[in-house]
Write a structure and sequence with these properties.
This protein is mostly beta strands. The chain has one domain: OB fold (Dihydrolipoamide Acetyltransferase, E2P), CATH 2.40.50.220. Helices cover about 10% and strands about 55% of the residues. It has 1 helix and 7 strands. The strands form 2 sheets. It has a 5-stranded mixed beta barrel with strand order 1-2-3-5-4. It is elongated and about 45 Å long. It starts with a strand and ends with a strand.
């Protein structure tokens, strides 16, 4: 799992049948205490009916079995899914609020 920022939407004219009603997003991992600090590569993630959109800070599950459970499709070709929208992060005595 990691915290990421949604950079944008992805539109596909054709999708796998198990992904037909799900939104595709481009996300990039961030430093949870400094959302302006992007880390690593951009990744395609499925929005598991959470309703995330560009600019949102989200919790990403990057493991296939768990991702399929979140979206409720055991045969979906999915590895990375949005598990939730992050409201705040607490680290030691520091709190970073996003919502």
């Amino acid at each position: 799992m990691f915290v990421a920022k949604v950079l944008g939407n992805v539109w596909a004219t054709r999708k796998h049948k198990h992904l037909s009603n799900l939104k595709l997003l481009i996300v990039k991992q961030i430093d949870p205490m400094d959302p302006k600090k992007l880390v690593g590569e951009a990744t395609l993630a499925v929005d598991g009916q959470i309703g995330a959109g560009p600019g949102d800070v989200v919790l990403i599950m990057d493991e296939g079995g768990s991702a399929r459970k979140i979206i409720g499709e055991p045969k979906a070709p999915v590895r990375t899914v949005v598990a939730g929208i992050v409201d705040s992060v607490n680290s030691k005595s520091e709190v970073k609020k996003y919502a």
